[in-house]
């Protein structure tokens, strides 16, 4: 008798082999929705209790992943609805019990994975007695990246199958394991072409195999040992905990929870191990880090990648040929990324040599790809061929879109904008990659300001995933839609902001490096500032990153802004003092010059950078140094309060954009979920109170505005509750 459930079908053939084929009707991919869990439970019950069924195989009717993991939206909504550790345990307990029932039902069960098995998908497979994987698929337990751990038995069955030592990096790294490696590690039993997985699983079932998991056999021992006396224990647990603590600065609870599951869970019977896993899962799911990471880095990033901010009613467009003005660091990167996406590129500079140098950048990156076996030579050659290096504006004639990436200088930008406008089609979009100059003011040099927009890429363009799209006063909806289509072609994540000096990311980021300079000037130890920044989760401290940007450029930008009539913000004159002292009096321009806040070893000389000893002479360290928590707070809150001003001034309108922009563009710690999530997690009243304290201690740059205080008083938050992500 065959059964059709909403999310799967169960058929039984003449030999008594039950085939459970998963196919969630209204979803493009199979994910472990409540409906699938319910149906899977019913199917398992039938397999266990129906005497006509001698063995079973699980597979998927969809192409693509076998099962792509949990339903992340469900988990985020559950958090917003009031998740507690106990409810978290209950959420996974049902699937856990079903999978345990499956592996102990006394009948052999095979898993025929015709596509990748990710997260919960692999956990279902691990509860089967035999696993067959398609040769082009991968397996992975990526939960750690979302602040969680595999709650469907993954932290218990994987180490019991392949040993704790081999399981730990898979669980802690979350990286995909290719089919051949999964076979070599013993995660799967067979690797065959995708079309053959079901036949292979059937053949195994018909061979009257054992229907018991290794860990249910009397006398079973975890491969390689478990507990404190295992030969690998010092490496896996003692060193592992130290390295994990250093890497995460204890801002991310999931990796340590995974190590605890491995340590505690593998010393006890599997049922107890599964309960231990459930306990840690519940703790993580009810904590803000997992919710914030899932919401920003999964749900909102996916929406942004699908161009959620694209205005409706504009036909989908595709850039076939892009013009890039300026073949420097940014232009060369934009040219490479565009060519890689299959777009023809006209790369223009003032001399043929400069243009060719920009094209060479692509040649070098492509060569690296070939050497690493990531790209066949023929493909690399085709990508490079797409780039035309030129000095002739006439070559821009049939470009659909032009990106300007010349020097950050108004006159130079105005000149190239006018020259390009003369040759390109009247329908073409013109984008500026300026990092600070207001887009509306630059569009004055373009005859069709409706077609003018800002596309702010980040350096290095080939690695940085974010593009900040800036809408000028006159930018049309069509231009925005077409610019977003181009960002989509490049497979980058866009956020959309309104025009203002520094837009969103540069404006917020500048407060971070300026706060560093202000603390230095106050006599706070520069080493304390840099270390506190890394402890807070920033990839680099404010001085290291200042040196990268160059102190000279910062000085130029601030001076240009003041010349342009931008009001002087509190503390800015003191920052200017620091920069002028370093650049003007001591010639410390930044990393490129070998001297900034740090001293750098001369080119070709071994050694590490070190904070310049002269800093202490110019700005003597005060006797009473602040607590590291206070320094962390200043670095986090100064960016957060600036973000609230960006909301108030409508520079940014969506909290998801603020979150993504801050994490992907300017290195705001991802454990916070981004700068808007950081504020919401604290709660606006608490955030406002702390800003007031900081303002009274360090100055009005921390002061919350009446608008923000009203928002706090009214019980509002930046992210609307619940319904926002449904
Ligand atoms: P860069 O100095 O490396 O490159 C600028 C290029 O423009 C040079 O190759 C130069 O020869 C060329 N150029 C100058 N005048 C020209 C003209 N009249 N016609 C054609 N080409 C001309 O600078 P970059 O770092 O690539 O920055 C370019 C733009 O991107 C700037 O507006 C900058 O603010 C912005 N930006 C820079 C970064 C960054 O991290 N460097 C990040 C985002 C945005």
Automatic annotation (TrEMBL):
Keywords in alphabetical order: Fatty acid metabolism, Lipid degradation, Lipid metabolism, Lyase, Multifunctional enzyme, NAD, Oxidoreductase
3-hydroxyacyl-CoA dehydrogenase C-terminal domain sequence ranges: 502-600
Pfam families: 3HCDH, 3HCDH_N, ECH_1
Stored SUPFAM superfamilies: 6-phosphogluconate dehydrogenase C-terminal domain-like, ClpP/crotonase, NAD(P)-binding Rossmann-fold domains
Pathway: Lipid metabolism; fatty acid beta-oxidation
Domain 3-hydroxyacyl-CoA dehydrogenase NAD binding: start-end pairs: 321-499
Catalytic activity: a (3S)-3-hydroxyacyl-CoA + NAD(+) = a 3-oxoacyl-CoA + NADH + H(+)
Keyword NAD: yes
Alphabetized PANTHER family for the sequence: TRIFUNCTIONAL ENZYME SUBUNIT ALPHA, TRIFUNCTIONAL ENZYME SUBUNIT ALPHA, MITOCHONDRIAL
Family as reported in the entry's similarity comment: In the central section; belongs to the 3-hydroxyacyl-CoA dehydrogenase family.
Protein name: 3-hydroxyacyl-CoA dehydrogenase
